[in-house]
Amino acid sequence: xxxxxxxxxxxxxxxxxxxxxxxxxxxxxxxxxxxxxxxxxxxxxxxxxxxxxxxxxxxxxxxxxxxxxxxxxxxxxxxxxxxxxxxxxxxxxxxxxxxxxxxxxxx
Amino acid sequence: xxxxxxxxxxxxxxxxxxxxxxxxxxxxxxxxxxxxxxxxxxxxxxxxxxxxxxxxxxxxxxxxxxxxxxxxxxxxxxxxxxxxxxxxxxxxxxxxxxxxxxxxxxxxxxxxxxxxxxxxxxxx
Lengths: 107, 124
What we know:
Chain A contains no helices and 9 strands. By secondary structure, chain A is mainly β. In chain A, the strands form 2 sheets. In chain A, strands 1, 3, 4, 7, 8 and 9 form a 6-stranded mixed sheet that branches. A 3-stranded antiparallel sheet of chain A has the order 2-6-5, with no helix packed on it. The radius of gyration of chain A is 13 Å and the shape is globular. The mean pLDDT of chain A is 97. Chain B is built from no helices and 11 strands. The radius of gyration of chain B is 14 Å and the shape is globular. Chain B starts with a strand and ends with a strand. Chains A and B meet through strand 3, strand 7 and strand 8 of A and strand 5, strand 9 and strand 10 of B.
């Protein structure tokens, strides 16, 4: 089976840049999407196709994917960005995988 | 803006069955995924039905016990769950798939819209 590895937690000061990684074998050959989940809420798509933002996602959010690692960056982090973040990729045409999730704390 | 709505969750005993439903925009012509989240845990992909309604795939943890189906006439999608186990306890979300070409499901797809989830609790 295919695994996506995320750090369980990250912390950032308000206004600074938060970086969340997602690692998997040859992940750069796949398309990665990212989801934000605030406490008690459903997941929300924030990045798709590695780096594209749906309408409504602030441009503070950016993504990249190369080699074995996809990265979600949040610049000028705000208290409202405190949430769990999950990466997703398709293992193959029959299976989808989520990373374990990263809890972002805005100090 | 609510786009998908799940229903059918509840408290059931191990070994029993339950059917979840998902209704909303795009259920009849998009790929739809079921994703679950156990209490205090991360997201786990459960199953997908492709936009064509023909291809259906399941996570190993539910294969042979869960079945996804679609009623296009009513724009409803179902997750039939049998032989439920304590470890199936979770909030179950349905999510609408979108890909670069629009409604066609592929390995390039992402989950563009999610429901609010329905809780399934399996307990004796």
